[in-house]
Amino acid sequence: MSILSQKIKGDVWFIYDGDCPICTIAANALAIRKSVGNLHLINARKEKTHPLMQEINDKGLNLDKGMVIKFQNTCYHGADALHVMALLGTGQGWFNRMNYWLFRSKKLSELIYPS
Q: Which DSSP state fits 113?
């Protein structure tokens, strides 16, 4: 079942490495659909004590190898996070349009963004 077909509204948490220029651009440019919920950005370099950082560490997700999107109590990492971003994005602005076209397919996401 697709994330969007679940029709459950919830907050989206985007946890990224603030020292990574690409991650920072993504964090600043990402826009999600209002029908999805609210977007919260967490720069892992500045918010080391945020409760989600402990959860990410407990799950063994490495932010040096990819960003994390948490949506509906599930953490998506790396290529999966980009795929989820594409599905939840507005499609407005150059970043969101590019993200959608590159990462809307889970298989293509895995090819483009190897872990």
A: S
